[in-house]
């Protein structure tokens, strides 16, 4: 895909500008708050209301287990291993992570990787499949862009060329097979917790149904929205302590750190995409990096690209220079910074 001229402010070509009023601005804020808080608050309220009747400790334990199993499949497998090649995994681990990620209902492994590499190649400019700046930087355009980046892009007619963005996985027989199994793995993602709940619940069908609801459907719903929030919120709000490429407005958003397993340290990630740890500063929770560290100690992962102090210092912005997330002009950063493309060789700083 060729780069399209873009000034960082106007809507992407083909999308007309939108006007705004104070009322529209209030609606934007209200809808944003609803998108962020409603899914989690709904789950908490449902658990509180149904405790002892429609949900129990077994359901929640199973939900937690499958949430982190499939979540690490996405964050460690799809993202850090297969998209950015932050480490090398033994074949069994590589395939296992791809299977676990496929059970998250976020698309086949090859499609997911290709889409994400395309996102990095065109971050927040024409060509990005899910930028919240697609419709401009005005309040109404931002509201439209937020919905688009969160899940609206999934319904658009803008397919990603997997042969261009993920030729390595297309050429890998194991990844082709796992991609082809995506529908079956989605069924397994719901069937396994249901069967586990049924067996633990003395083979009562009601135990299987509640496990299906909470450890299956609700778990998938929550993980999807957390992932989508990295696409949307982590380009609109938060901090930007590190320099990124021109127009790239990725942010660090600490409230999502635990549920996203470290993926919400998004500005840090976009500053150094192939680094295995995204939460690089003191107190920044990054469970995915911890899992990679465990794999490394077990001998299952090698060539791990851990943070390099020199690169961090080179990319770190002073507090006065750190740009505001929604500022178009602030996204113009020094052109001398390395431009890590979707298939660029890994820069192993030692």
From TrEMBL:
Signal peptide: none annotated. Its main location: membrane. It is a multi-pass membrane protein. Residues 62-278 form the Fatty acid desaturase domain. Residues 318-338 have a biased composition (Low complexity). The chain crosses the membrane at residues 29-51, 57-78, 178-197, 203-222. The keyword NADP does not apply. It is found in: Membrane. Keywords: Fatty acid metabolism, Iron, Lipid metabolism, Membrane, Oxidoreductase, Transmembrane, Transmembrane helix. InterPro entries: Acyl-CoA_DS, FA_desaturase_dom. It comes from the Bacteria. The keyword Membrane applies. Residues 316-350 are annotated as: Disordered. Belongs to the fatty acid desaturase type 2 family. This is Acyl-CoA desaturase.
